[in-house]
Automatic annotation (TrEMBL):
One of its GO terms (molecular function) is iron ion binding. The keyword Iron-sulfur applies. Keywords: Iron, Iron-sulfur, Metal-binding. Residues 1-19 form the 4Fe-4S ferredoxin-type domain. The chain holds residues 116 to 517 of 517 of the full protein. This is [FeFe] hydrogenase, group A.
Amino acid sequence: NCGQCTLWCPTSAISEKSEIQKVKDAINDPNKVVFVQTAPSTRVGLGEEFGLPAGTWVQGQQVAALRRVGFDKVFDTNFTADLTIMEEGSELVKRITNKEVTPQITSCCPGWVKFCEYYYSDLLDHLSSAKSPQQMFGAVLKTYYAKKNNVDPEKIFSVSIMPCTAKKFEKERPEFNSAGQYWKNKNIRDVDASLTTRELAVLIKENDIDLTKLPEENYDPMMGAGSGAGLIFGNTGGVMEAAVRSAYFLITEQKAPEALFKLAPIRGLEGIKEATLNVPGVGDVKVAVVHGLNNARIVMDEVRAGKSPYHFIEIMACPGGCISGGGQPRTSVPPSDEVRKQRIATMYNKDASYVLRESHENPEIKKLYQDFLEQPLSHIAHDLLHTKYTERKGNLKAKKLV
Ligand code: SF4
């Protein structure tokens, strides 16, 4: 077990099983093309494995290292973080305008999702049906990208670099074979292997590569562009802030006001944060941001009692969000608040420096809808990008788990 997660994840979802050899075998297999995606928060963690201070930005060096390790294409999970926002934001707008079940609750954290499936299975209809960025990436890679580039989807080996050990579990969920269903080929899985940030560091070092000496390189096109909104997905409050920027636009067809680009009440390390947003045509929208599963229990008990004041809730299992996930470097175990703050500060500073800060403005996302997905919540978007959850109450061994 990863150490950190056993502290925080009571669901046994999280155990670290190395997939380094599996990835090396794929890289050495002449019949495979090996494509990789990198999660938002690995770029503010990886440097610590090479002696750099917590929060050092190594996005470009990480891309360069992945190419030198042997990946054929290096893509960005921020691209599908933007896609998740498009689908999840559209779902939220639909739920609010049609007076469907609210609060909508985020579902991009597999540690949280599994916890909910065990302990709050009566509330699964509150979870957004939008898949996580990791899983959307795999589904789009082996359909849209494969088709556009004439690559045999069965030859694609899809790897994710994640700050998270629970992502290894998530990719194995039987339902995450949307590309296989699309091609009617049960051998095709959406994501074939997931490495933690720490495993990536091992792979880089095994190849005698010094990350600190590498030039900064750019992601490959088509699935390599991400907005500032996609980037801040990696820290507590980031998914909500990203969603708010786009949901405002989807409802009003106007750019969100400047205040929504630095949503102070939902930033920082307080366990439960909330904000009220006034959206023209809708009125007050109340949102909450929660990290750590003990805090999740508090807001979920409120939802169960019918007393939740919120329309939308972000929940992340790890305190601080993915920047301090169980797969990140162990500069301190568990990460100190100081380390968390340094990683988070880099994320927000980079977002503030970007020209592209809204998911719906990402040109590669616009092209994906134009050429393939049609529009958010379309039939094909539902097939590839949305999912259902599993009641696991019957399997619960609560006495061991909490
Ligand atoms: Fe994984 Fe992020 Fe959830 Fe932690 S918060 S379990 S790193 S997805």
